[in-house]
Amino acid sequence: MIVLIGSQKGGCGKSTIAINMAAYFAKKNEDVVLVDADPQQSSANWVNDREQTSLPKVHCIQRYGDIKSTLTDLNARYDYVIVDVAGHDSKELRTAMLVSHYLVVPFRPSQFDLDTLPHLCEVIDQAQSFNGNLKPFGLLTLAPTNPAVSEVQQANDYLADFPLFTALSSVIHDRKVYRDVTAEGKGVVESNNLKAIDEFENFMKELFP
Predict the structure, then answer these.
(1) Radius of gyration (Cα) for the chain, nearest Å?
(2) pTM for this prediction
(3) What distance in Å separates the CA atoms of residue 4 and residue 105, rounded to the nearest whole number?
(4) I need a surface site. Which of 107, 119, 192, 209 has the fewest CB within 10 A?
């Protein structure tokens, strides 16, 4: 299965979601490859750090430009292909949509992130004309941990205006542990932070019921 993590806005936690998904599958002994198609190379750097540990292996390749054939080839050899692309409308994003099964769009509860959704929906709609198997999901990320803050509900209400997306009820909060484990080549499911483990496992179970 090819799972594309993409959006048209940087800073929404795409690489964080991608590497944590890869760690989740590796922990479950699934054969997973992480495709870093973002010139910032955040995912590839994480894999390099992980290789210095005894943690379950995550394979990684870096590809840019038209990545359709690369993803199709990897899909025949791995259980899960996780694709991390740059946070803008790129060739990597558009070509990956043509062969991916899932598109997970992380977005923060901010108007700047939400304002990118109308154009992104147009791009997704075009891709689905060629790839009828593409299923887009909206994932709220970097949400405030303060339960009194209403940003999460407001963002979910806005997302409801875009029926092209399946809005996930799971929320990824802005927790320091995500940054801490990344520096160690780990995912949060390999940490001892129970709240972070629960929220990420709940997200994965919702995405892959």
Answers:
(1) 16
(2) 0.92
(3) 8
(4) 209
